[in-house]
Amino acid sequence: RRQHTCEKNMAFTLYSLIQAAILCVNAVAVLHEERFLSKIGWGVNQSVGGFGDEPGVKVQLMNLVRSVRTVMRVPLIAVNAVCIVLLLLFG
């Protein structure tokens, strides 16, 4: 009988879940405000609200994007390097 080898390659592991999360954080980290976000109406000028107003979902998402770009820039370099090394070592 032949063993199916594709079952081994299609495993859903914790490492693949972590890789997916890292890819999503990388995608958020590379968004450029003037080139991409302002063209779809998510720039700095569009998020101005009044004093005491609750920030909307769009403003909160833009704050999240700015925070990820600011805080995660240096740690993402290290995390990406570790992922590359692990992929080179273990396939």
What do you see in this structure?
It is a single chain. The protein is mainly α and 91 residues long. Helix 2 runs antiparallel to helix 5. The radius of gyration is 19 Å and the shape is elongated. The mean pLDDT is 77. It holds the Pfam family Yos1. Belongs to the YOS1 family. This is Immediate early response 3-interacting protein 1.
- Report the major sheet: none
Proportion of residues in helical segments:
55-70%
Shape estimate:
elongated
Alpha-beta content class: mainly alpha
What are the secondary-structure elements, in order, as H or E?
HHHHH
Low-confidence stretches: none
Cα(first) to Cα(last) distance is: 27 Å
Number of helices: 5
Structural descriptors:
5 helices; mainly alpha; 91 residues; protein transport; Yos1; Immediate early response 3-interacting protein 1
